[in-house]
Specification:
Elements (H helix, E strand, L loop, with lengths): L10 E5 L16 E6 L4 H8 L5 E7 L27 E3 L2 E6 L5 H14 L6 E5 L1 H7 L2 H17 L3 E5 L6 H7 L5 E2 L1
Parallel strand pairs: 1-7, 1-8, 2-3, 2-6, 3-5, 6-7
Antiparallel strand pairs: 4-5
Helix pairs in contact: 2-4, 3-4
């Protein structure tokens, strides 16, 4: 990965501007989006960044599971793969996947992996908001490992990753994460 190598179709971007969400810091308009959020509830993420996409899922850590019922208006999103929290829930703007424990970064990664495999033909972008919140829920080492696997898996799937630093992440931690990304903006 080395901070400059890109795979065909893959790109990893670290957004360092304070207060800027990953999807807001991305100049590319992705048709398929996988949002990983520790900051927003899933519906808020989908309403804000998923409405205008062909396919969208929000993987929300720390939310309690919902019942698997569909809400009218989600014609553009198929019932996605089954995630670690059970059946995904379709809402108006996309699919909601919940991971009840904020510290279960493995379950978050497994849910993202399923959508990268299922939606590979749509060249999805994975948006991670915010790394500071992920570090708070886990630690720097686990977050680094998560990002390393996520970026590698996305590149193998010709997908993109855009991650925002968030608020309050120390500069030395940002410098630790930066080499995992192709670009830092």
């Amino acid at each position: 990965m080395g901070g400059g190598a890109t795979h065909e179709g893959g790109d990893a971007v670290l957004v360092t501007a304070s207060g800027v969400a990953a999807a807001d810091g991305d100049p590319v308009d992705a048709a398929a989006a996988v949002g990983v959020t520790y900051r927003f509830d899933a519906e808020t993420w989908l309403d804000r960044w998923g409405d205008d996409r062909e396919r969208a899922v929000a993987v929300s850590a720390g939310e309690q599971s919902r019942s698997a019922t569909a809400v009218a208006g989600s014609e553009s999103v198929s019932s996605g793969p089954r995630g670690p929290g059970g059946d995904p829930v379709e809402v108006e703007a996309g699919v909601v996947e919940t991971v009840p424990s904020v510290g279960d970064i493995g379950a978050v990664g497994a849910a993202v992996h399923e959508y990268l495999a299922e939606w590979h033909e749509y060249a999805p972008t994975v948006y991670v908001d915010s790394l500071a919140d992920v570090v708070d829920a886990t630690d720097v080492e686990l977050t680094f490992r998560f990002l390393h696997v996520l970026v590698a898996r996305a590149q193998d799937a010709d997908a993109r990753v855009v991650a925002s630093v968030g608020e309050g992440l120390p500069a030395d931690v940002v410098e630790t994460f930066a080499p995992l990304f192709d670009r830092v903006v």
